[in-house]
Write a structure and sequence with these properties.
- The protein has 449 residues and is of the alpha+beta class.
- The protein contains 15 helices and 14 strands.
- A 5-stranded mixed beta sheet has the order 3-4-10-7-5, with helices on both faces. Strands 6-14-11 form a 3-stranded antiparallel beta sheet. Strands 1-2 form a two-stranded antiparallel sheet.
- β3 and β4 form a beta hairpin.
- α6 packs parallel to α15, α11 packs across α15 and α12 crosses α15.
- The longest helix has 32 residues.
- It is globular and about 70 Å long.
- It binds protoporphyrin IX containing FE.
Length: 449
């Protein structure tokens, strides 16, 4: 049965948002999390681009398609806030992370943080992470049943220690910090959303304390001695007019940045590995490009020459958008595409399913990196057709960092290994949280001599 979210103000030309919300609080949460693609399509065909339903305990308006994404993300009227929306999911563990700040305050922090992501800084980060990539990939052991996802996850975690924290850790401390970090990230997807000892939410709160204590302990030395890592960069970041982060800000932003960078890059690399395993002709094509560079470890300017790898990376992020949905909360009455949305509503931009809309993409389920090549550029049909990094004021600040890291890792993987999956293999993609393969993506890994 369909029902309206709220009647539009009398005399306005606005339409009401329709939906089939289902049982209060629960609605279609389980179906949407298990099969977001089918659910999104059904809603779109039945109700159009703007619909509502119960999702994870909240009345949620889902706005589909690039035009609606632009309205929400560009946020011209400052009607959509990040803080209250994201806080519901990850608030206690990522308190005052930059993505959870809004409007003037967010802009203030963003201007300072930008100083840690300039081109010279990115060059330095790449140099800092190169030995870790060589070491990490060099330690991979060929064989069948090599779980690509698990190995890439470990590698990005190890790289984060070098390039984000820049702190020498003894193995026990490294395990403790990595464990805390994993607990903090997992806690956001807890079913029981209050602290019960032993369960995810409780472990997340404890992990937050461990991480805070860790960064606070190392902060004075970082402020004093500097370094080539993100932690040092945030300690030193200063705008032209002299604004800097407080100690609390540095701690909050470090914990958030670790989270923002880790799973997203891991998911992208895993998706690339999956499609390159299923499309060996593409794997050879990108390998040839890497060989043509003629060096084991690429430098900053070399990465632009990995053109096909760039196409594969974009196509992987289209097929599996690592952040599947961008939530906002309306802070005043507003509208999207002529639909009335009252103050206090959670609104979601579903990048994962938007990237599969047949209205926007030709043969959307097909792995076709050339769709991003000059001459086709399907992503240019609309500025928000392809939006894995979001858009507007909160657009991913680490997008160039991510590209550098992903390409550097793949360059080394491609030169050292070939990998494959059995004919007909389809990965079991879990979409109940950030997307990831339930089986860890087992591949047959061969070393190239
Ligand atoms: C493939 C990798 C990545 C993807 C797909 C990705 C995606 C995103 C998305 C969609 C947002 C916007 C969220 C929103 O609007 O609600 C975002 C924000 C952010 N990302 Fe990334 N990200 C990636 C890698 C990174 C990396 C490597 C870093 C840090 C080095 C990073 C740091 C951040 C930060 C700090 C924000 C918040 C920006 C703000 O609110 O102003 N991300 N990311």
């Amino acid at each position: 049965m369909s029902s309206i979210l709220a009647p539009p103000p009398p005399g306005s030309d606005l339409k009401p948002v329709l939906g089939a919300p289902g049982v209060p609080l629960i609605g279609n949460t389980i179906q949407t999390m298990r099969d977001p693609f089918t659910m999104a399509r059904k809603r779109y065909l039945r109700f159009g681009p703007v619909t509502w339903g119960w999702l994870l305990g909240q009345r949620t308006v889902t706005v589909q398609g690039p035009e609606a994404a632009e309205t929400v993300l560009v946020n011209k009227d400052k009607a959509f806030a990040n803080g209250p929306a994201w806080t519901y999911y990850i608030g206690p563990f990522f308190t005052r992370g930059i993505m959870l700040l809004d409007f003037e305050e967010h802009l203030h922090h963003r201007r300072i943080m930008q100083q840690a992501f300039t081109k010279p800084k990115l060059r330095t980060y790449l140099e800092t992470m190169a030995p870790g990539i060589e070491r990490g990939v060099g330690a991979w052991r060929p064989g069948t049943g090599f779980t690509f996802y698990d190995h890439i996850k470990q590698l990005t975690l190890d790289l984060a220690t070098d390039v984000f924290m820049g702190v020498e850790l003894d193995p026990r401390e490294a395990d403790r910090i990595n464990g805390a970090f994993i607990d903090a990230v997992r806690a956001g997807t807890a079913y029981v959303r209050f602290p019960v000892p032993g369960l995810r939410w409780h472990r997340g709160l404890r992990a937050r304390k461990v991480l805070e204590e860790f960064f606070r302990r190392h902060l004075p030395a970082k402020r004093r001695d500097g370094g080539d890592d993100l932690f040092a960069a945030l300690c030193q970041a200063e705008t032209d007019d002299g604004h800097r982060f407080t100690d609390d800000d540095v701690v909050n932003h470090m914990i958030f940045a670790l989270m923002a960078a880790h799973d997203t890059s891991t998911i992208t690399m895993t998706t690339m590995a999956y499609y390159l395993a299923r499309h060996p002709e593409w794997q050879e094509r990108v390998r040839e490009e890497s060989r043509a560079l003629g060096k084991a470890v690429p430098e900053f300017d070399d990465l632009d020459r990995l053109v096909s790898l760039d196409l594969v990376m974009k196509e992987a992020m289209r097929l599996v958008s690592p952040v599947p949905a961008l939530p906002r909360r309306t802070v005043k009455d507003t509208s999207v595409l002529g639909y009335h949305i009252p103050k206090g509503t959670t609104v979601v931009v579903p990048t994962l399913t938007n990237h599969h809309m047949p209205e926007v993409w030709k043969d959307p389920e097909r792995f076709d990196p050339e769709r991003f090549a000059e001459g086709r550029r399907e992503d240019k049909s609309h500025k928000y057709a392809w939006a894995p990094f979001g858009g507007g004021a909160h657009k991913c600040i680490g997008l160039h960092f991510a590209g550098l890291q992903i390409k550097s890792v793949f360059h080394q993987v491609l030169l050292n290994f070939r990998w494959s999956v059995p004919d007909g293999y389809q990965w079991p993609l879990d979409t109940t949280s950030l997307p990831s393969p339930k089986d860890g993506l087992p591949v047959r890994l061969e070393r190239l001599t």
